[in-house]
Specification:
80% helix; 10 helices; mainly alpha; 0% strand
């Protein structure tokens, strides 16, 4: 399953970028990446509803039905690609080096995401808030929608820097607030602000990658960047498994805010300037 999702994530992102005009790459791909964020948030809600009201078998059949629907949608996308000469496989050619800074930066930011998605249900059980859990994912999606609709014009205008820092501040405060989580209302508010932060960050970083990569290299660039999701979520889930036993989930969630601070430092010291240089080089190349 990991292999399939890894391929599909980078392939569909590349497919979306290939149908966009060059002038609309950044705007278009940030909107497309937003649908991935929504899917990642809606997925746990759907899974919980099916599991609680039907059965495990029904859960797998639901996933299968969604997969078939996705296959039909992709099959309807008709794009003609020129024949290219395939080079001999080489490990070093599986990583697109210009996308590595974005990948490393986003990897830090996905660590708390992995912790929250994997362990929110267990935390809700510990706090006797299970009845609020399905609505946690709904508020998460609502936060994503609100952030996307309210900030898109600023992102389109290139005002990404304040959006990144504002999102990180919101996410740090949200994770620290888990130290004081005692009510269902607090859980829903945390989900809402968690959605606001990622509703901005995930599409924005994807636009950084796609908007600075030549057409012929976008598939490899997307595959490299999407490693940040796999690695970050994996680290977050594994880390919370250890922290749950030692300090508890509430403190563990709060502790993952350190990953946001590390991501902010990486962005400020390295990625921000790097993105500007890559963007200028890409625009100069297309202007020639």
């Amino acid at each position: 399953m990991g292999a399939v999702y890894s391929v599909c994530a980078s392939a569909t992102m590349t497919l979306a970028s290939d149908v966009l005009p060059v002038a609309k790459i950044t705007e278009g791909i940030s909107r497309f990446a937003f649908t991935i964020s929504i899917g990642m948030a809606v997925g746990p809600y759907v899974g919980i509803q099916v599991q609680n009201n039907m059965s495990s078998k029904a859960s797998f059949l639901t996933v299968f039905a969604i997969t078939v629907a996705a296959f039909i949608c992709v099959a309807c996308c008709k794009i003609s690609y020129p024949k290219i000469k395939r080079n001999k496989f080489s490990i070093k050619d599986t990583i697109y080096k210009p996308a590595v800074p974005f990948m490393l930066n986003m990897m830090f930011l996905m660590i708390p995401y992995g912790a929250v998605i994997a362990y929110s249900s267990i935390l809700a059980q510990e706090k006797d808030l299970t009845a609020f859990l399905p609505y946690f994912y709904i508020t998460l999606v609502a936060g994503m929608l609100l952030s996307k609709l309210s900030t898109q014009k600023y992102i389109d205008a290139g005002k990404y820097r304040p959006m990144v820092y504002a999102s990180l501040v919101i996410l740090v405060v949200t994770m620290i607030s888990y130290l004081f989580l005692t009510s269902g209302v607090h859980l829903l508010i945390a989900g809402f602000f968690f959605g606001i932060g990622y509703g901005i960050l995930q599409p924005l970083f994807q636009s950084f990658v796609t908007g600075t990569t030549p057409t012929q290299s976008r598939g490899l660039a997307n595959a490299t960047y999407m490693l940040s999701y796999d690695i970050g979520i994996g680290i977050g889930s594994l880390l919370m498994g250890f922290l749950q036993e030692s300090i508890g989930l509430s403190k563990g969630f709060a502790l993952t805010a350190i990953a946001y601070l590390a991501g902010a430092v990486v962005f400020a010291v390295w990625v921000d300037k790097y993105y500007q240089n890559q963007k200028n080089a890409y625009e100069s190349q297309n202007a020639q």
